[in-house]
């Protein structure tokens, strides 16, 4: 075989691997904090996973660029409390149906307090980023209807640093219910000064903790990719959504992002699809 043929065969194999064997992190995301989910659906820490083909997790995106107007961090900016006033927040929440378990749970006060507890949001924030955050929060909680995932999975992985508490489950809670696994709860708790490993239900008991938990993840794994566009950050939030079998989910999320951009009076970036 010539080199060209070898490369071509590898390419075909890679596509087959994606369609046949995609599983693993495309279903449950990677358990380890340092693990990335590769485009082919496997978890690892090396460059094959965290480099150019990284799909989600702590991807190394240095030097990656799409050009064009793909920057969620660009455009008009403002302070969080002036971009999202309590009236606007309440009008968003008024659409939550009364039979939702989270009806009335996500409050404006908790939202603002959580934002302000992160250095990155103390000053002026790009309106596009706020629209993106709202789109992902809305999507991640099924339009602010749920406080936690309906799941029997434990999402407990072996970890020296953040061992599971007996009887506790680390499935998705709060606004980004794609945040799962004990290491994520452990690291978030450490950062926020909260006992989330011992008591993960704190996220679904306190709206402030719920917002902080989601913002912690956003700051850590999503924010570095803002300049690559909305599609790219969607992968960082939840790689499952970008699989071929969930295209409708992707479309809905893009629709929500565009709606929130309109609400805040900004044009969305152009890199919408993931
Ligand atoms: C609430 O009620 C609506 C309309 O009856 C229904 O479509 C929806 O699934 C319900 N939601 C929940 C969380 O039960």
From TrEMBL:
Taxonomy, superkingdom: Eukaryota
One record GO biological process: cell wall macromolecule catabolic process
GO MF annotations in UniProt: chitin binding; chitinase activity
Signal sequence interval, chain numbering: 1-22
Cystine pairs: 36-50
Entry keywords, A to Z: Chitin-binding, Disulfide bond, Glycoprotein, Plant defense, Signal
Residue ranges occupied by any Chitin-binding type-1 domain in the UniProt entry: 22-61
Pfam families linked to this entry: Glyco_hydro_19 (PF00182)
InterPro entries per the UniProt record, alphabetical: Chitin-bd_1, Chitin-binding_1_CS, Glyco_hydro_19, Glyco_hydro_19_cat
Assigned protein family: Belongs to the glycosyl hydrolase 19 family. Chitinase class I subfamily.
Descriptive protein name: Endochitinase-like superfamily
């Amino acid at each position: 075989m010539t080199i060209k043929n070898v490369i071509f065969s590898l390419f075909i194999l890679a596509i087959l691997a994606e369609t046949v064997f995609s599983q693993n992190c495309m279903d449950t995301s990677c358990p380890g904090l340092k693990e990335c989910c590769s485009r082919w659906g496997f978890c690892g820490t090396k460059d094959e996973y965290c480099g150019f083909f990284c799909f989600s997790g702590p991807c190394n995106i240095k030097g990656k660029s799409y050009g064009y107007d793909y920057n969620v961090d660009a455009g008009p900016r403002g302070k969080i409390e002036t971009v999202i006033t309590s009236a606007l927040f309440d009008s968003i929440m008024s659409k939550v149906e009364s039979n939702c378990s989270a009806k009335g749970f996500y409050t404006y006060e908790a939202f603002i307090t959580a934002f302000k507890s992160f250095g990155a949001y103390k000053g002026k924030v790009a309106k596009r980023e706020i629209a993106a955050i709202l789109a992902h929060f809305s999507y991640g909680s099924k339009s602010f209807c749920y406080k936690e995932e309906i799941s029997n999975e434990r999402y407990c992985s072996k970890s020296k640093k953040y061992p599971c508490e007996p009887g506790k489950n680390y499935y998705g809670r709060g606004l980004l219910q794609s945040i799962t696994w004990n290491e994520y709860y452990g690291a978030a708790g450490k950062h926020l000064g909260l006992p989330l490993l011992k008591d993960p239900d704190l996220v679904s008991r306190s709206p402030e903790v719920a917002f902080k938990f989601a913002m912690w993840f956003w700051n850590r794994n999503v924010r570095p990719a803002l300049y690559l566009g909305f599609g790219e950050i969607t992968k960082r939030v939840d790689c499952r959504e970008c699989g071929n079998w969930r295209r409708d989910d992707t479309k809905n999320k893009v629709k929500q992002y565009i709606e929130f951009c309109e609400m805040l009076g900004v044009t969305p970036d152009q890199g919408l699809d993931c």
